[in-house]
Amino acid sequence: MEKIKMQPTRPEDALLTDAFADFLEKCRAKNLSEKTLNIYTVHFKFFREYLSDPDKKASDITEDTLEGFILYLQNRDCNDITVQSYMRGVRCFCYYLMEEGYLQRFKIKLPKADKRIKETYTDAELKKLLKKPNVKTCEFNEYKTWVFSNYLLATGNRISTVLSLQIKDLDFENETIQLNKCKNRKAQIVPMASSLKVILKEYLTYRKGSPDDYVFCNSYGGKGNIRSYQEMLAKYNQKRGVSKTSAHLYRHTFAKRWILNGGDIFRLQKLLGHSNLDIVKEYVNMFGRDLTKDYTSFNPLDTLGTVRTAGKIGFGK
């Protein structure tokens, strides 16, 4: 019996769910991280719920469809940043549909979102968090969390990068740290602050371990879990009277203090591992009133001393 040849699905007949499955396969072929793929999947789930039609075709997506999705998210009380984030993921998928011939090309503009001032740890909070516990009486977990907190502030690294750090990545002789797992998937070498060097060397005398072991491990010596370390940090902070508990706030704090202490944004870009200056510029704009600190000491007009404080008001007086 002669086999019936299956005709390939035409782009205009392809279901949206099938097209998304193909999109994920292409993303995997490009070696995108599983974290990125999971984000795309979550965004598509909301997009499909909005469409409410499991048999929706890929070719049915229009500019009006996307505008409706924005309203759908807003009606669910999603804030501007969340709406923009979801639209960014759906836009990537839609551009893929255009490249593969499922859709006619059209430009997709992201909705505008007001930039919020990023939260950071205050000086008072840092003093509480970075006060060294008594190593003779405290539990090792408290001491490890103290070291972890110091590391986060001294480097501005993301928590996923820190938990991938191995003992062999710490070069005490040259005072550098090799980061092998970064968000941009590019390894980099960053300086090791002198104060951090002291802390890490002491920590490793207690931690011990071989060069291939993780610096910040779990209870069994394996790679530390992000959620576990976040929870550990939250308990540590709350115990010290600090309500802020995010590890990522240390990254914001690092950037803020770097700039306020006179560091240039080009080096900050490299240290934070950003591919361009756009995100770093956001850090510059996020400090609000902090930028007025010592403003008179640096302002060109004030430092020239050409303007005297007026004793009397009015011309000719």
From TrEMBL:
Span of domain Tyr recombinase: 116-296
Which residue intervals define the domain Core-binding (CB) in the entry? Answer: 14-98
| Entry keywords, A to Z | DNA recombination, DNA-binding
Against Gene3D superfamilies, the record matches this protein to: 1.10.150.130, Intergrase catalytic core
Q: Tell me the GO molecular function terms.
A: DNA binding
What family classification does the UniProt entry report for this protein?
Belongs to the 'phage' integrase family.
Classify the source by domain of life.
Bacteria
Stated name of the protein: Tyrosine-type recombinase/integrase
Q: Which GO terms describe its biological process?
A: DNA integration; DNA recombination
Q: Which Pfam families match?
A: Phage_int_SAM_5, Phage_integrase
